[in-house]
Amino acid sequence: MKNIIFIFTSLCLFNFGFSQSYKFETLIDLEATDVISQGNTGTCWSFSTSSFLESEIKRISGKNIDISEMYTVRNTYQVKAENYIMRQGKAQFSQGGLAHDVINSIAKNGIVPQVAYTGLDHDATKHNHSEMLLVLKGVLDVYIDNPGKNLSSKWKLVVDAILDTYLGENIETFNYEGVPYTPMTFLKMTKLNPNDYVSITSFTHQPFYSQFILNIPDNFSNGSFYNVKLDEMISVINHALENGYTVELDCDVSEITFSAKHGIAVIPEDDATKAEAIISVRPEKNITQTFRQQEFENYNTTDDHLMHITGMLKDQNGTVYYKVKNSWGTDSSRVANDGFVYMSEAYMKLKTISIMVHKDAVPKNLKNKLKL
What we know:
With 372 residues, the chain is an alpha+beta fold. The protein has a single domain (21-370), classed as Cathepsin B, Chain A, CATH 3.90.70.10. The protein has 12 helices and 13 strands. A hairpin with a 4-residue loop joins β8 and β9 (264-265). α3 packs across α4. The longest helix has 18 residues, at 44-61. The radius of gyration is 22 Å and the shape is globular. The chain starts with a helix and ends with a helix.
């Protein structure tokens, strides 16, 4: 009887340990700019990567600079339009993109501060690209249909005019803190080097320690990713944070256990506890490389959203979480943790599509394997 009581008591204590409200202890908290909202747009890729680069500027030069997300978006729409036209409409033309699209843009077009280019229409305070996208795609489809039987080069001028109307004219010069700049000289001033950033993923349908074009819809620019084992990808995130580097993140946020409102993202062991898991601690699944691949190929893990990893925490049971900066604003009725989401290691392992880091943030042994 005593043994039965002991076992019953132990089980109760175990279950109690995994049904408490979340309590977090900060382990690492790196500098990042304030959380802002991407508005009614699908431009999380620019907001998150701009935030990532703002932290990089702070780390490299000590400067606090608010980068214009919409300057990058505007220049990237031109690239998307050309890709769509040249592929005769047999390509995705949407608001989405990936982190390397920002890197590609700054390498070609430089960067500008937010004060120089807001991308907001007249007195608007929030971004909304729904109408602009429909207008752009409609115009491009007309040119693709080619009613004149001769593709006119005027489509580029028309696209520029639409972007001018909705986002504002592109800029070539501006003043910042009393100094004149071009977008390229401003990039040089920040000391960012676009060649220093690498994209890393982990899937078994391609060889490890090689580069491949990740076949997801928003990779319209055919960006290449280094492929590593799952534990190695997590080790890159940990090593980066431990050494003062933040991390750009592309992941799936379609799970009901990703909750911006509660500021939590977890993968509970028991699917029946999903609703409870966003408000109280539950045991989580052991995420393997095989299960991760299965969920990707089943479309259960999709390329949904890009965010910015700025720190690490642990809960009362010692489980590791990542502090992830979102771009859905700070309205406390909609989001918790001032706009940050605390993402468990299990969620990170299963739902991460890819990460981007400075190449010096990659552990030395892995850096050698990838020949970085």
